[in-house]
Amino acid sequence: MSRVQIVMFASAVTLLLAVLNLVRRRRLREEYSWLWLLASLVFLSLTISSVVYGWVVWLIGASNAALAFAFLGLYFLTLICIQFSVQLSQLVTKSKNLAQEIAILDGEIRDLQKAADVAMPSAGGELQKPVRAAADGVRAAAGNGREPGSNGWEPAKSSLSGRVQPARDQALSDVKLSNNPVTELPLPGLMPPSSSGHQASGYEDHAERSID
Amino acid sequence: MSGQRHNSMEAFWWPKETLLPRVLVVMPAYNEVDSIGHVITSVQQLLPGVDVLVVNDGSRDATAHVATEAGAILVSHPYNMGYGVACQTGFKYACRHSYDYVVQMDSDGQHEPRSVLPLLAAVMEPDVDIALGSRWMGLAEYKGPLLRKFGKFFFGFLAGILTHQKVTDPTTGFQALTREVVHFYSSNVYPVDYPDADVIIMLKRAGFRMREVPAIMYLNTTGKSMHAGLLKPIYYGMKMMLSIAMTLLRDDRKLRPVQPPELVNLGYDRGGMA
Q1: Which residues of B touch A (CB under 8 A)?
Q2: What is the CA radius of gyration of chain A?
Q3: Which residue of A has its CA nearest to B86?
Q4: A42-55 burial string, b = 16+ CB within 10 Å, else e?
Q5: In chain B, count of helices (H) and strands (E)?
Q6: How far is the alpha carbon of A39 from chain B, nearest alpha carbon, in Å?
Q7: Which of the four pLDDT bands, split at 50, 70 and 90, describes residue B65?
Q8: ipTM of this model?
Q9: Which residue on chain A is closest to B56 by alpha carbon?
Q10: pTM to 2 decimals?
């Protein structure tokens, strides 16, 4: 065994063990490890067996062994890079789709909150307060309580709630402006159909369109 | 007020199961605080009863606030993702809420709101699936820079050959779509970085019928074009060539979706027309 072969053997074994250990510790997922495992196994077989080694060098037509190893190494690296690019493209598409859905759902939630505030002006938003506090708590907990003073239970001034706040204030001030008896309706679901006057159909329409 | 979304009293009196088509105007917006309010109000004045959706693409100014104040529906991206993604978010919203027609227009005031009417009229005809607003058809108000003219000529020529149809404005972002095209745009086949000539070819190959309609567009006065700089036009040209070549190698007829694929339909669909 030549010295270069010994070095190659040691490197291939180290690589193989490192990849296996990463998979064992769940730092590397199985589906992304197979190309690395294949590469290290090929190198291992090249350094162990002189038959395989001679055959590969002959197949490539390399004048010496170093060239064959360099070629194979580069080729594997290219393959792995392409695999990464494919995965990256999929991830970009997925994260884009996720962000789009979040945006749409966020808009719908805001519309629903506004509709709820308009439907129950007499409550002045009081009825939604516990729900909102809970939602804020969940948001704070989701943010791992990074905001100072947040223990995950009290509503925290998270970035998200900060963004929603103006919309709520707007909705509440809308309600104050429209503080006349006709608009003070109970919950639409609890209302007998006959009591939905024409004057109120605008609000009702809004509430329904948001869900529709 | 809640009623801001509907500008006329007629909008209130429409029955819920109306036979009138529901139209959504999708406006992608990125830091358009100066122009967007005016654009929204003019669209609402011209087309009362039409919903305006502003897709706020991570703006750092008060675009979102101005849009809601003007009575538009607002959808806000959590971070900036680009023009094409913003358009697609609007299309997905339209799918989810079962709109019959969608108009895509810019929020920076480049697209004249009055031109929405001929676009909608064209797309509502039975033999048209998509109406493209062309700034170079008849109404010559638009005089762009030289490079853009060349790009327009080259890709228009290419798209014309490949679709067997005259395409005078391959880079238009002013279009009206039927529900089917909106579903197609909502799928992952839609190229979200530069949806231009390649989309036109893709649509044609997927079997959609398009028509070009004259539309008034103004020069971008603020100067923040998507294709500004030295390297971006080169990249754009290269990417577009690659995209067109790849489009020709695919069979998009198979890709034409029946249902919007990405969003779970939570019972928003009125059924029937899909």
Answers
A1: 1-3, 5-6, 11-13, 16, 55, 65, 68, 73-79, 81, 85, 88-89, 92-93, 96-97, 188, 192, 262-263, 268
A2: 32
A3: A100
A4: bbbebbbeeeebee
A5: 9, 7
A6: 32
A7: very high
A8: 0.76
A9: A103
A10: 0.69
